[in-house]
Amino acid sequence: MRVRRVRPERFGAFVATEEPFALISVDRALARRLGVDGAELWREPSREHEPVLRGPTEVHLAVTERCPAACTGCYADARPDGDEPAFDVLRERLDAIAAMGAFSVALGGGEGALREDLPDVIAHARALGLVPTLTTSGLGVTKERARRLSGLAQVNVSYDGPPGVYEAVRGYAGAAHAERAIEALREVGVPVGMNTVLTRASFAHLDAVAARASALGVVELQLLRFKPSGRGKLDYLATRLTEEQVDALPAVLRALVARYGLFTDPASNPASDAFDPGSGRFALRVDCAMVPFLAADPSILADDLARFGVIGCEPGRSLLTIDVRGDVRPCSFWRDRPATPLAPDTWSSDPTLESFRDFAESLPEPCASCAFVRVCRGGCRIVAGASGDPFRPDPECPKVRAFMKPTAQ
After folding, report:
1. CATH topology of domain 58-307
2. How many CB atoms lie within 10 A of CB 84?
3. Would you tell me which of 140, 159, 194, 215 could form a disulfide with 114, CB atoms 3.0–4.6 Å apart?
4. CA-based radius of gyration for the chain
5. What is the rounded distance in angstroms from the CA atom of residue 333 to the CA atom of residue 74?
6. Other CB atoms within 10 Å distance of the CB of residue 255
């Protein structure tokens, strides 16, 4: 294992490794053995849960709001004539991200793959020591384009179901574009993941999605919660998972892991084949907004989720977003509330990031007494905000639903 970069923190340090990129948190004792000097950071005792890091570990950077697809639930409200910052502007924003001490930058949109100068954006991120990734629908990713994007550490392609299902979820026929993009990127050696947004229409087809992920040789399948943001607010109540689907989700995930997961029975999944795209296996991931749905399952332990890095609401803890106008937002879905311009002290002074941290540090009931309080962090602020107050427990969490039910007289 070769260490690429180290960043001291109050708890110890973050250690970034090369090939493959991994970000590991270590305590002060191990950090000292690696030659890290914590100086003033280590003069006070370390807390079990440090409320604020020195900077984000990952920044989401919107490189465009242009997109021709017009997905019905687009969180960014992306359009063919959407805003698109010049390359020089993006270069300055990448410089600012590196100065914050971030390790990775996730490029998004709109449809970032359609930017002609995207390879230059990727090259500048690499020159700054940032690890760049991209989320795309696959539009515009030809074989030649894929070769020019080979500087990306990973590309996640949106795929909300096979033909027919995809159209029902997104409003346009994009499954074929997505599959061609996955194949083109894999041919040039770029690791490819698949992103699937869970809606009541796509949930029933998760087996088919996983089968395509296996056949296409992706390294991961990431399941994302549908959120009321952008055009996604318009029909949110009829699009989100039903309560019955939420309750069934942990069992569905267990079945997918048993069939396709990397970490299954070693006899059927030898270590030598575990990360081979040809094995048909992949890592199954859930986004931070899905954690409340897992926490309600009595067979799942908070320590197990933490051990595998399944952590709720990341904004203000390890993540921030910079939109196309250069405004700072806690996450890409926080779009309809005030944002502040990017500045050198953004991480420590932005009032919205501070509100996220304050909420996670002093959660109300039923979160305060929940065993998953430090893992879940109160659920999704975007979902909570749709019902009037973003700083309240996630109203779709099964435990919160049970807590809020009136007691029978």
Report:
1. TIM Barrel (3.20.20)
2. 18
3. 140
4. 21
5. 10
6. 13
Strand partners, 221: 194, 284
Written as one letter, the residue type at 226 is F
Here the tokens at position 232 are 């996604």
Phi, psi (deg, nearest 5) at residue 282: -155, 165
Look up residue 189 and give its two tokens: 């050696």
Spell 155-191 as b/e; 16+ CB within 10 A means b: bbbbbbbeeebbeebbebebbebbbbbbbbbbeeebb
Query: What are phi and psi for residue 37, nearest 5 degrees?
Result: -110, 110
Contact partners, residue 143, CB within 8 Å, separation at least 6:
184, 187, 188
Contact 296, 272 (CB under 8 A): no
| Segment 10-51, tens digit of pLDDT | 999 999 998 777 899 999 999 999 999 999 999 988 876 766
Partners of residue 7 on adjacent β-strands: 14
Distance CA(39)–CA(61), nearest Å, equals 32
Residue recorded with tokens 């051990």: 307
Q: Convert the pLDDT of each residue in 252-272 to its tens digit.
A: 999 999 999 865 443 434 444
- pTM assigned to the model: 0.92
| Residues 382 and 333 sit within 8 Å (Cβ to Cβ) | yes
What is the DSSP pairing of strand 220-225 with strand 283-286?
Answer: parallel
CA distances from 278 to 21, 89, 167, 176, 238 (A): 21, 40, 28, 21, 38
Number of Cβ atoms within 10 Å of the Cβ of 55: 20
Extents of the domains making up the chain: 3-42, 58-307
Collect all residues with Cβ–Cβ distance below 8 Å to 73 and sequence separation of at least 6.
Answer: 169, 170, 171, 197, 199, 226, 230, 231, 232, 235, 239
As given in the structure block, the two tokens for residue 277 are 């795209």
d(CA 266, CA 254): 17
